[in-house]
Amino acid sequence: MLNWHKKIMKIVMEKFNLTTYDIALIAYLEGILTAVILYEFIL
């Protein structure tokens, strides 16, 4: 499973010309957005 995920991430990174820093930043912003949405609509 882990090898499959690494392979898919490499393909996506090459397709969109992203670095590991870009992927980390996207994940960070996605986490913030998810937290804001949950806070506004659930709590």
List keywords for this structure.
43 residues, mainly alpha
Overview of the structural elements:
By secondary structure, the protein is an all-alpha fold. The protein has one domain. It is about 85% helix and about 0% strand. The chain is elongated.
Give the ordered list of helices and strands.
Answer: HH
Percent of residues in helices: over 70%
Strand content: under 5%
- Count of spatially separate domains: 1
The radius of gyration over CA amounts to 14 Å
Q: Which word captures the global form? A: elongated
Decide which structural class fits the backbone. mainly alpha
What is the number of helices? 2
End-to-end gap: 35 Å
Task: Summarize the biggest pleated sheet.
Answer: none
Strand segment tally: 0
The average pLDDT value, as a whole number, equals 94
The residue ranges in which pLDDT falls below 50 over 5 or more consecutive positions are: none
Topology:
Layout: H1 2-16, H2 20-41
Quick structural summary:
The chain has 43 residues and is mainly alpha-helical. It contains 2 helices and no strands.
